[in-house]
Amino acid sequence: MRLSLLLLFLPSILLAQYELTGTVLEANTGNPLPYVNVFLEGDQSVGVLTNERGEYRLSLTEAQLQDRVVFSLLSFQTHREPLWRLDTTALFFNLSMETAFVELEEVIVISDIGLRKIVQRAIDAIPDNYAREGHLIKGYLRRYDIDNDTFSYYTEALVNIRERSRKKNFDPWEPITARIEQFRSQATDIESLRTNNPAMNLQAGLLAGYLGSLNFGRSGEFGGILLRLASDKQFTKIMNFSNRGEYLNGPDTLIRIAYRLDTSMIDHNRSFTSGSIDAWFSGEFLINKADNAFIQYARGNEEATSFGEVVYFKHAGKYYPKRLSYSLRVNYKNNTRTHFRHNDLFLLELYTDSGEIRKNYRGVTMNMRDPLEAIKVKYDLDFWARSKYLVQLSAPEEMRYQLERMQQFLEDPKGKLRRDSTK
Asked: What is the spatial order of strands in the sheet that 79-82 belongs to?
């Protein structure tokens, strides 16, 4: 069976006659909402995601102006706006999204013990909730590095990740097979942490977040999370939990739970700073109480040294990763320089039928232990010219100009493009 999630595609520039723009904010706080799905109700293959400032840009044909545009984000109320009501001479629409928070009398107050039980049930259900059958994920991947507030590396790819059938409990570090179908990247000559660190240049780094503890689908147990401080039965013992609210999502009830390391419960010989706890040992879960499934997981925070997040969707009774993000910020050279790295992986299509898997598993095989420079994929100018993935790049504000310049360089309309390798 094939499931297409093409909300990240933009239509062909040649067909577009109108451009709908706008900003999506959180109604309660006024803060911008990133990663909101913005798509047409009648043709969900036409859509984009909002950037980190809540902005979106959607290219439309005249016929599509008779459709509705849908704004959808987990734990927020879905909004449908008729396009025919908008002024085509100034086509824009701003939205303040209301949360789907509801007060349910029976869960107005949940004790600490109650929250621990909810989390533990979700941990115990991991082997049953996440896909163990063979499947193929086609995803759009992007990575960029910043050294001392200067762009140093940028890459994006269309990647096919193949997972084979396996037992419920297995080694979370079990190798995966993946192929790169489309690829392009560019590195600058400025000094970078990755220049003298071979481990940061391996192809496996492109899949940071998908491998390891961020992806429950690859972990039969909860082990590996939080630098191996906790196994599946220890996690709920060494964390403090707090209830951030409950949400209705159709027939399901979702509960958002924050966690933070309780240092009094672990080895007293270990020393922790508030910053290290915020970066590595704290975060949030969004749990579906109907089937005890983690459907969103965030670790750290975007202001700290490390941040990771994964969002899942359900298909045929099993959960698959829909979006994974991973960021890391470190100081080096005696704190005189900073390095920031960000990875995104967005699911475009999912294949679960064996025939469809074989048919669509194409491209150049990734060798996880080989350097990035070893990736050799023929540059398809037509593909990159017509497939505009996430034009509004999620990046720190000071880097936006340089990243846009890189985008323009890679999409030179004259066709004078460098190879897709880092040479």
From this structure: 47-49, 37-40, 68-72, 79-82
